[in-house]
Fold these 2 entries.
Entry 1:
Amino acid sequence: MTAERDPIDRLTCVIPAGGVGSRLWPLSRAKAPKFLLDLTGSGSSLLSSTWQRLEPLVDPERIMVVTGQAHAPLVRAQLPDLPEHNLITEPSPKDSSAAIGLAAALLEIRDPDAIIASFAADHVIRGSVLFERAVRTAVAAADEGSIVTIGIHPTFPSTGFGYIKGGGARTDLAPFDVYDVDEFVEKPDQETAERYIAEGGYLWNAGMFIARATVLLEAMAKSEPQLVADLREIAASWNSSDGAQKREELWPHLKKVAIDYTVAEPEAAAGNMVCVSAHFDWDDVGDFASVAKLLTRGRQSDLAVLGDSAQVLSHKSSGIVVSESDRLVALVGVDDIVVVDTSDVLLVTTKQHAQDVKQLVDRMKLSGGGHLL
């Protein structure tokens, strides 16, 4: 009799590497998006760090990256151990349902029993042992047919993240840390976020999803049957002579929608989602305020510098300076400032308004400044 495969041996990790990261403009741009940049001063890009985090769990044959065609060469350069057939290129960005759904459809063909786990390319995680423990717990729950997400214990009342409202403990799936998901909550206002923290029972939604590939696709098909049908058709012809033609025919018409809306929210409402309560440190590098927080963590400094610190002169100032030019950046008596100095753009704002950088990018798209994006 053949021994049953351990669930972790059927795990494939998928890294969706898309999005420009417009709140990090002008550092992050269309040709060099944030996941390809070193934003922590570690010497590794966010994408490379994600790869390194997954290596102890699975071998390279079971790590896939989904990215845009324009970024494929740089992804290959940064991840030399990524198998060629595991680099999945999208003809155009169609959001996370299409990206993760395509990976699931390809995996479903390769291994009908495959378990898929999706981890964004632009997150920073500390605590590798705790990360691996959370993933293994999630994989065990997914093997039982559940759709699983990994939630992060909030450290402050953030209005920039979505939240997961936890329900009853699922000791039938794991002895601890696994709970029903009662609801996914959109990014709240400050008062609501403070209430969530005070009440307890809420976790940050980090966008990590783990499930059997077929289970994930069938859940997505409940709300978007045409999307899943097209993804499966694209996957079926992926390596065939007419694969490129099939992608050209179907991809432009795929619905652009996040997996939160096609899977997470409806499945939570139906009582079909569970959550692993994780204990590792997690950051979503979404704007320059979050970059500053990462760079000054554990340091006796109020000013974060990314780039050549010799090009920054500061007196009684705090915030973050990103230096990519040969100019000297001098600060005197300014608090929580954000200065990003590149060869062709100088951005000055404050940490309080770091999220608003996206508004500038949106205006530039309409005003003919696209060459700077």
Entry 2:
Amino acid sequence: MLKKLYKSRDDRMVSGVIGGIAEYFGIDSTLLRLIYAVVLFIGIGSPVLLYIILAIVMPEPKIDRRRPERTNNKGYYKTNASRKRSPKEAEKVEDDDWSDF
């Protein structure tokens, strides 16, 4: 299967470029962001210009129309925080007098 390079829809800090590259190569996006920060501060090449070009050129991921629950009514993808979850109930803990004080 042919892989394609897209911006990440879930792993975004600014525009999803680094998250998309990390998903494409199968590496951790935090590691890739650290490498980008080191290259940025050392001044090798022009990482800011490269990021801007990639943000413009890289396509957004296609929306899967078969799974409309992944988007809200405005067409944006829902984040994990925006999905409703049922609250977990706390388990009752027995009060043991284990303290030496």
